[in-house]
Amino acid sequence: MANTQSPLSGTEVGTTGPVLIIGAGLLGASLGMRLSKLGVPVFLRDIYPVVSALACDMGAGSTWEENSPEPALVVVATPPDVAADQVIAALKEFPDAIVTDVASVKSVILAEVAEAGADLSRYVGCHPMAGRERSGTAFAREDLFESRPWVIVPNEKTVAGAVLAMRSLALDVGSLPLQLEAETHDQSVALVSHVPQLVSSLLAAQLARAMPESLGLAGQGLRDTTRIASSDPALWAAIIAGNAEHVAKMLRGFADDMQQVLHALEHPGAAIPSPSLVGAVTLAMRQGNLGVARIPGKHGGAPRRYQEIMVKVPDEAGTLGRLFQAVGETGINIEDLELEHSPGAAFGIARLAIEPNSAASLAEKLEIKGWEIVAS
Hints:
Helices cover 45% and strands 16% of the residues. It is built from 13 helices and 14 strands. Helix 3 packs parallel to helix 4 and helix 10 (244-266) runs antiparallel to helix 11 (275-293). The longest helix has 26 residues, at 182-207. The radius of gyration is 24 Å and the shape is globular. It starts with a strand and ends with a strand.
């Protein structure tokens, strides 16, 4: 695919248009917004005209018409339960185009496309590891894929040019491309995405039956572990159904570990907790420590340890923005951020993760600017 230059940055853009995006939801609209900003011609097609119209209004491209130019690349951005049908139809409708899909399951889609006898040489699956807890066009954003992994999943017949096109697409939208086989991809996302979604949702389901007094005690830990529980149930049902075998295997391992802790809790021994209870909980916590330590750091690099600075933030409009401005004026980068705020409280606590060699300097400079640093 020939390189063009972005009208905004002057940098080379590897993706050649026109690009047709089928499905103008969160991923499709976000992709269209980014490519359009780079100057790539983008067209949108969705079964709901109001959805594609909204995406067009947001700058994601133009509505696909019968007289629109033939696409060089077709991106199927529909839910996984209908993605294979859309891929098959696109390969037939546009015989000169490379066709990809961005669904979060790959093996089942590849199997259906192959079974239909479609041209596998022009098909290459993809999965940008990006999203939000809220789905839908209205939540699309052009930087959704920035610094996120973009998995490229070719099949044994995919031509090299199609793989190169996907690598260019990933780089153009700011992602980090990597290549996996379909089975490896599905096994991996079961662990890092699908099971976490189920665990978060199952935990949050307990809140539906909780006493109001209990909910009033909720802190940041509960919010962190249930954040993704507000995801779209219909979409996730389709995702997990498409990866049922691997999700079941991972969930069984989780259930086995949970059962060991549960058994120890239900059989604590005498009045004093037995070593089996303490040992089971300690083992679970230590294994969790080891797992967290293996999660890659920013941009897929090695895990990094940061020093935390806690800043008192009054519950007033614009205060958080002023804090960011104050930090920005110091020239020190915020590596991560958590905000703790209890309902009704007059202030919250911003927990800033900073490089250890810059943390003391930032705390001192913020205090000079009038911000109150909370001792850890």
